[in-house]
Amino acid sequence: MGVTTSRRLVFDGVGIAYPGRDGGPGFRAIDDVSFSVEPNEFCCVVGPSGCGKSTLLKAAAGLLPVTEGRILVDDREVVEPDTDRAVVFQSASLLPWRTVLHNVAYGLELRRRRDAIPRAREMIELVGLAGFEHNYPHELSGGMQQRVNLARALAADPQLLLMDEPFAALDAQTREVMQEELLRVWSEMRKAVLFITHQIDEAVFLADKVVVLSKGPGTVIREVVHVGFARPRDERMKRTPDFLEVVDRIWHLIRNG
Amino acid sequence: MTTITKDAGARASVTSNPPRRFRRFRPRRSFWLGSLGVVLLLAVWEVASRAEWINPSIWSRPTDIAVAAVEYFTTGNGWSDVRVSGAEFLYGFLLAAVFGLVAGYAIGWWRWLDELTEPIVNFANASPRIALVPILITMFGIGIASKVAVVFLAAVFPILLNVRAGVRTVDRSLVEVAQSFKATNLQMLRTVFVPASIPSVITGMRLGIGQGLVGMVVGELIASTAGLGFVINTAANQFRPDLAFVALFLVSGTGVLLSSVLKAVERRLDRWRPPVGA
């Protein structure tokens, strides 16, 4: 669909500390994290709650500065948000005064792109929301709002998709549907994805590679687990012994900190 | 793919939009009940006055007030008083609205500016502006200028403080969305802060109208040669409560009217808001 090619995202010795109050010692959320997301790769990050998963993603988006190391997109260091990356936020964070169509077109409108509206329509269709262009966010269910959230990020035509626990607030059935939908959409776009989640089975189902983080604060990488299951994948995969074995292994990694 | 059918079902309920008919019904009932309340009050007043349970030369009565109103606008100074008071209020309020909006957005946006001005704003907001009227009259004379100043000072703080609060309480996650798309400051203001703060802006304007009208009347009561407040003062001194009530009702009526105009504007601008409560 897109003419753009995927990029490589590299975390190189990244440490992130929040400044302490009144110049006191800061809170070290991330200590030393190095891994990469290869072009076209689907990479999930899991870890115990409070380990700074979302912090990593915000830093990759350029919304939060790193205190040590570097984050690179191809060979350019991330210092601020840019059009090569787009974020799918945890809460749908849609502008409530804009219709679905204008929410999806938002990123392109800010860039004054003439094709903002036609492209937004295309993305709305892609995420299965055709017919809802003129609805306001409050008229949509949680799952539909997250589809808009995804479409908004895709419309901006990024080379890297940064997804911050986008399905965490959804009910179990909607979440499973959304996972399959995401894989379908991704197989059509083939962009590199960094996907944060606390659900191990979600990570294993979606990812080529799962980065397992240690307990925070001072989070480091416990292990990088490669997931080789064939694509396209569907729901039934989640009940195979191979799948459960990988989930179990990651579960033990997280549990033992 | 099962969701597509689920979504289609959801869509039917979304687009059929059931609340509309319901909404049209409610104001109709509230309108009739509200009118009934007014009529009952006027009737009690009229009867009490005619039966002399209350002293008619002090309390007047609705029919006398109606007669006085006709007289005031045919042979009296009605139109010129309304023009004078209207000009005072309009200029004062427009100044307050423009200044309050600009300053409110500015101190909401720049933290340092807020910190710089906060003590002044708090102090000025806490001071009774009506107490400033004698000083303003020595500054600007007893003509229209002093009343414009009173209206401005009365109306500007509710507007400014509400706009600031509106800017401050903008959802941080929406700001992050705009940042992630590399929005410029101007785009951020236009696409996030202004639409998000509209309810607070309208609230500030509504409070500003009420305060401004009070300022206008009090300014005229204290020192003036024309206007509705002037009429209230002179009529009361000449034992013409009917005429005083005419002027008073004109002021209150203006307040109610402007307030409902703003409410309509808000509904127009806030069509996206989920219908919650009343």
Mean pLDDT of chain B: 88
Distance between the termini of chain B: 38 Å
Number of domains of chain A: 2
Q: So, CATH architecture of the largest domain in chain B? A: Orthogonal Bundle
Give the CATH topology of the largest domain in chain B: MetI-like fold
Looking at how many chains there are and whether they match, the oligomeric state comes to heterodimer
Structural class of chain A: alpha/beta
Q: The CATH topology of the largest domain in chain A is what?
A: Rossmann fold
According to CATH, what is the class of the largest domain in chain A? Answer: Alpha Beta
Describe how the helices and strands are arranged:
The complex is a heterodimer of chains A (257) and B (278).
Chain A: E1 9-18, E2 27-37, E3 42-46, H1 53-61, E4 68-73, E5 76-77, E6 85-88, H2 100-104, H3 106-110, H4 116-126, H5 142-155, E7 160-164, H6 172-189, E8 192-196, H7 200-206, E9 209-213, E10 219-226, H8 241-255
Parallel strand pairs in A: 2-10, 3-8, 3-9, 6-7, 7-8
Antiparallel strand pairs in A: 1-2, 1-4, 4-5, 9-10
Helix pairs in contact in A: 4-5, 7-8
Chain B: H1 2-16, H2 19-50, H3 56-59, H4 62-74, H5 78-109, H6 111-126, H7 133-140, H8 144-168, H9 172-180, H10 185-222, H11 228-237, H12 241-269
Key attributes of the depicted protein:
heterodimer, A: 257 residues, alpha/beta, Rossmann fold, 2 domains, ten-stranded mixed β-sheet, 8 helices, 33% helix, B: 278 residues, mainly alpha, MetI-like fold, 12 helices, disordered N terminus
Concise overview:
The complex is a heterodimer of chains A (257) and B (278). By secondary structure, chain A is α/β, with parallel strands linked by helices.
Description:
The complex is a heterodimer of chains A (257) and B (278). Chain A has helices at residues 53-61, 100-104, 106-110, 116-126, 142-155, 172-189, 200-206, 241-255; strands at 9-18, 27-37, 42-46, 68-73, 76-77, 85-88, 160-164, 192-196, 209-213, 219-226. Chain A folds into 2 domains: 1-84 and 163-182 and 190-257, Rossmann fold, CATH 3.40.50; 94-157, no CATH class. Helix content of chain A is 33%, strand content 24%. The relative contact order of chain A is 0.19. The longest helix of chain A is centred in the last third of the chain and has 18 residues, at 172-189. With 257 residues, chain A is of the alpha/beta class. In chain A, helix 4 (116-126) crosses helix 5 (142-155) and helix 7 (200-206) packs across helix 8 (241-255). Chain A is built from 8 helices and 10 strands. The mean pLDDT of chain A is 90. In chain A, strands 5-4-1-2-10-9-3-8-7-6 form a 10-stranded mixed β-sheet, with helices on both faces. Chain B is mainly α and 278 residues long. Chain B has 2 domains: 16-59; 61-269, MetI-like fold (Orthogonal Bundle), CATH 1.10.3720. In chain B, 83% of the residues lie in helices and 0% in strands. In chain B, helix 7 crosses helix 8 (144-168) and helix 10 runs antiparallel to helix 12 (241-269). The radius of gyration of chain B is 24 Å and the shape is globular. Chain B starts with a helix and ends in a 9-residue tail after the last helix. Mean pLDDT of chain B is 88; it is low at 1-22. At the A-B interface, strand 6, helix 3 and helix 6 of A face helix 1, helix 9 and helix 10 of B.
